[in-house]
Amino acid sequence: MLLEGKTVLVTGASAGIGRAAAIGAARHGANVAINYHSDDAGAAACVAEIEALGRTGVAIKGDVADPATAQDFIARSVEALGRVDVFVNNAGICPFHAFLDMPAETVDRTFRVNLHGAYYMVQAAANQMVKQGDGGAIVAVSSISALVGGEYQTHYTPTKAGVHSLMQSAAIALGKHGIRCNSVLPGTILTDINKDDLADLDKRERMAARVPLGRLGKPDDLAGPIIFLASDLARYVTGAALLVDGGAFVNLQ
Ligand SMILES: NC(=O)C1=CN([C@@H]2O[C@H](COP(=O)(O)OP(=O)(O)OC[C@H]3O[C@@H](n4cnc5c(N)ncnc54)[C@H](O)[C@@H]3O)[C@@H](O)[C@H]2O)C=CC1
Ligand SMILES: C[C@H](O)[C@@H]1OC(=O)[C@H](O)[C@@H]1O
């Protein structure tokens, strides 16, 4: 049990990586509050799994693109669970589209959800941790895409580089408060975010062929690395970025 008695908050946890992180935290002894955007059934199912593990779970609806959601999520989580020990910034979108005719509203929405949302959520969680006075851990779900490009992801990859950079600067700003800030950089993980893109079986095979470990990732592959960074096992780790990509990034030839 790496998070026994801790309170963990996860954004975008009605599905995918966020959901796996939330349930993984509960499996490690944490009570968990999740933020979600619109999938009431997915959020309820996640809370039900947390509670089946004997922990308290709470789901709070809100669009992370709205700065007010961050204040609301932290305040209502504290109301329900008492405090915030760990904050996992996960919510994100990636509407694949070509560069030359990328609609301005797609760029704007992607920036607001992935980067502005991360900024205000991390800031609100950090303020709560500072108020509590005994440190904490923040883990952001960035991406291998913080380091490499994507033809149909010109609006998305800068947000993931931004989240990675946010963790580095926040690590400096919050170290004096005992708050650690790290990111995980997933490779290609099979979730709803890329279901349509990977319906192209040629592309899916190409992506899998790049992975030395021989397969694309599953949401649960991220739970362990996120829980590790959130836990006291990583007590001297801050400002770090952990690739969780089956080796895809280093596989040049
Ligand atoms: N699947 C992949 O290959 C990779 C995913 N990531 C990142 O992982 C994170 C999670 O994505 P996945 O689990 O893959 O996809 P997903 O589509 O299964 O999950 C995304 C989650 O974010 C939530 N969300 C979306 N917009 C939101 C909003 N405005 N407010 C609140 N919640 C919102 C969704 O409801 C959902 O729970 C994202 O930040 C994504 O960029 C990073 C690298 C690779
Ligand atoms: C959504 C993509 O399949 C996924 O998102 C990322 O951040 C990875 O780099 C993959 O491209």
Automatic annotation (TrEMBL):
Recorded catalytic reaction(s): these are: L-rhamnofuranose + NADP(+) = L-rhamnono-1,4-lactone + NADPH + H(+); L-rhamnofuranose + NAD(+) = L-rhamnono-1,4-lactone + NADH + H(+)
A Pfam family of the record is adh_short_C2
Q: Which residues form the Ketoreductase domain?
A: 6-193
EC number(s) from the headed UniProt entry: 1.1.1.378
InterPro entries per UniProt: KR_dom, NAD(P)-bd_dom_sf, SDR_fam
Task: Tell me yes or no: is NADP among this UniProt entry's keywords.
Answer: yes
Q: Tell me which NCBIfam families the record gives.
A: PRK07231.1
Its family remark reads: Belongs to the short-chain dehydrogenases/reductases (SDR) family.
Q: Any idea what this protein is called?
A: L-rhamnose 1-dehydrogenase (NAD(P)(+))
